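testing teh design pipeline on a random one, pls ignore if ur not involved
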């Protein structure tokens, strides 16, 4: 009997993809989705904030009590690897993950830090466990130096995967039934800078692959969206939703954060894209040092001008080793929570208004899961749709009439 391996993945889509790369390389072990029956647990960690570190740490402590054999990998190796080493059977950085089959057979404990900050995986992922869409990593690393972020330290400089490899990867997945791909990377918009191509050119090639019906994009930076990309917005294959990372809507704070984007040009960009019928999402950080009452009030008024329909706001949490961690004045936690709540309310209302505005547009829903007779998926605007049906729904479903509730769209088939 092969030993059973369970993966616990923390953090972003890049990490999810890395887990798939490891799964693909597990030759002498069996994958299990059931933590309880696993002999071995691989913790694929995230270290984006101190909070992320403590989530990983709590899980490690819990799983250690269960007497499992534990290995530690992911972004946390650079920041917490040494600290957790006594508790685990092995620690290995991103660039060693394709050797996982050999590493798990090691009889002795090991510590393998990053040896090559320019490493690019060779593995083609052939299947995405439990997903109707696949995340495809197209690049690694980041050349930006946002003051709050540790990622360039854990993931290295930006480098692109070869286009041919990405296309072969997607062809393989399309043959396995994947219909939607989500392109992702640490700083996805920098794809192609080192290989004389671009995200837009790559998307055009992916669109030619049979069976791929929809292409979604991970997070883009405003400063990376160029004319070539904007010309793509009329294409059917592109999801009608983009996630563009603003992080903030006031120039003073954007300067403190050492961001490349600025309020006025961001607003122009968002208005241009929204006018083409796109839903728009962003990340937003509240409570970063320096967010005075005056800055916040202006930033919130600015935010109201944006045609934003989705938001992923979070409260700033200091990440040791970054410039922001030693900045002052710090913002009171309750105040930050209040600001977060205001943002969530504002964008939830925007989203509701957007869905009403486009109520005549048929929704193309990719079914992702089911509970009893309720099926759930996301439409082309990345809005949640619930469908009640006694039929067995799967794949793509088109709906022409539906009820719009505050939380989601709903229909019966
Ligand atoms: S790239 Fe960043 S967000 Fe993603 S897992 Fe690593 S530290 Fe976390």
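output:
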């Amino acid at each position: 009997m092969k030993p059973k391996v369970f993966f616990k993945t923390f953090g972003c889509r890049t990490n999810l993809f890395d887990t798939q790369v490891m799964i693909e390389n597990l030759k002498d072990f069996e994958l299990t989705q059931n933590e309880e029956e696993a002999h071995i647990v691989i913790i694929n960690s995230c270290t984006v904030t101190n909070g992320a570190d403590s989530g990983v740490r709590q899980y490690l402590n819990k799983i250690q009590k269960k007497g499992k054999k534990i290995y530690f990998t992911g972004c946390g190796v650079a920041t917490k690897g040494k600290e957790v080493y006594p508790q685990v059977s092995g620690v290995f950085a991103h660039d060693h993950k394709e050797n996982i089959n050999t590493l798990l057979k090691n009889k002795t404990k090991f510590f393998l830090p990053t040896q090559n900050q320019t490493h690019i995986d060779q593995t083609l992922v052939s299947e995405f466990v439990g997903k109707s869409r696949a995340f495809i990593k197209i690049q690694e690393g980041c050349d930006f130096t946002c003051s709050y972020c540790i990622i360039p330290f854990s993931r290295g400089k930006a480098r692109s995967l070869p286009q041919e490899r990405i296309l072969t990867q997607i062809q393989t997945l399309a043959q396995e039934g994947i219909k939607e791909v989500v392109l992702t990377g640490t700083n996805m918009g920098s794809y192609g800078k080192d290989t004389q191509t671009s995200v837009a050119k790559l998307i055009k090639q992916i669109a030619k692959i049979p069976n791929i019906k929809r292409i979604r994009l991970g997070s883009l930076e405003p400063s990376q969206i160029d004319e070539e990309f904007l010309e793509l917005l009329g294409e059917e294959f592109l999801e009608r939703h983009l996630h563009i990372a603003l992080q903030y809507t006031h120039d003073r704070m954007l300067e403190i954060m050492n961001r490349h984007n600025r309020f006025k040009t961001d607003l122009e960009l968002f208005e241009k894209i929204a006018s083409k019928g796109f839903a728009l999402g962003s990340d937003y950080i509240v409570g970063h040092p320096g967010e005075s009452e005056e800055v916040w009030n202006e930033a919130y008024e600015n935010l109201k001008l944006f045609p934003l329909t989705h938001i992923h706001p979070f409260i700033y949490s200091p990440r040791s080793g970054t410039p922001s961690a030693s900045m002052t004045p710090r913002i009171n936690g309750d105040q930050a929570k209040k600001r977060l709540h205001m943002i969530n309310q504002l964008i939830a209302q925007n989203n509701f208004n957007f869905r009403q505005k486009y109520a005549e547009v048929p929704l193309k829903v990719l079914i992702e899961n089911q509970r009893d007779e309720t099926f759930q998926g996301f439409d082309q605007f990345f809005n949640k749709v619930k469908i009640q049906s006694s039929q067995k729904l799967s794949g793509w479903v088109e709906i022409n009439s539906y009820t719009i509730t505050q939380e989601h769209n709903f229909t019966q088939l």
